[in-house]
Amino acid sequence: MVIKIENENLVVEINQLGAELFSIKSKKTDTEYLWQGNSEYWAGRAPVLFPVCGRMTDGKYFYKNKEYPMPIHGFAKLFEFECDMKSNSKVELILNSNEQTKEYYPFDFKFVMTYELIENTLKITHQIINNDNQDMYFSFGAHPGFNVPFVDGEKFEDYYIEFSKDCLDEIVFSQKCYYTGEMRKLSIPSKKLNLSHDLFNIDARFFETDTDSVYLKSTKSDRSIKVTYQDMTCLGLWHKPRTDAPYVCIEPWHGVPADDGKIDDLQTKRQMIILSKQDCYTNSYQIQIND
Fold first, then answer.
1. Full-model pTM
2. What is the 3-state secondary structure (H, E, C) of the chain?
3. Which of 8, 116, 199, 241 has its CA at 20 to 30 Å from residue 108's CA atom?
């Protein structure tokens, strides 16, 4: 089921399957800012990544010497979330652990996704509660795609990502997007990374988050999208490699893919959050529409 929330500025839709953001539409300009999915390029829109980000080598991992399967970006996208609370401008969706989730992940948990409209901003909050009697290991992230262009008459190359710095620490992933441990400096003239389809010829581009927000802007108009991400460990940019895909994903993550060529152990995997039994972890990011 798709749930709608709205205020005087925006109309937002969320699919209960995976608690996935499905639409961000401006009331002022009647513009759809969120990528609407197209299997030619990418059928997704904004999947929620939990309890891992990225690929696991051979689609599996170990925990306490037992092997478990794990889809790319985790299993949350496969499950229907329950609607726990809804008002005109806010909705709270919940996934509780069950027999099916434990086929992938051996923990008792409660995962709460909250979407709330505040003026021209959508606030998205992840809350993970450890209901188990042991420490819980997880990472999580966001994967929203945005239409580019989002103004008629413009083209993909008219857009750029604006950072608050002119030099970024880029994480070097392998060609299949596994973690290599390598870093390189990427110079961003005038703090602007110009979009081109060639930017994604290999795959995603990922950066350490020593900044807490970026803008998606046009050189031809004043409209923009600002994505603010507190307490995330990296930020990714992606569209389907070697295509003319008319979107870009801006992906705040707390976590990284598996080490290249290694099947991870969950207890030693990089950038995992360790949550004590009966404890709660909360983190949020925001999407601001400026039109």
1. 0.96
2. CEEEEECCCEEEEEECECCEEEEEEECCCCCECECCCECCCECCCCCEEECCCCCCHHHEEEECCEEEECCCCECHHHCECEEEEECCCEEEEEEECCCCHHHCCCCCEEEEEEEEEECCEEEEEEEEEECCCCCEEECEEECCEEECCCCCCCCHHHEEEECCCCEEEEEEECCCCCEEEEEEEEECHHHEEECCHHHHCCCCEEEECCCCEEEEEECCCCCEEEEEECCCCEEEEECCCCCCCCEEEEEEEECCCCECCCCCECCCCCCCEEECCCCEEEEEEEEEEEC
3. 116
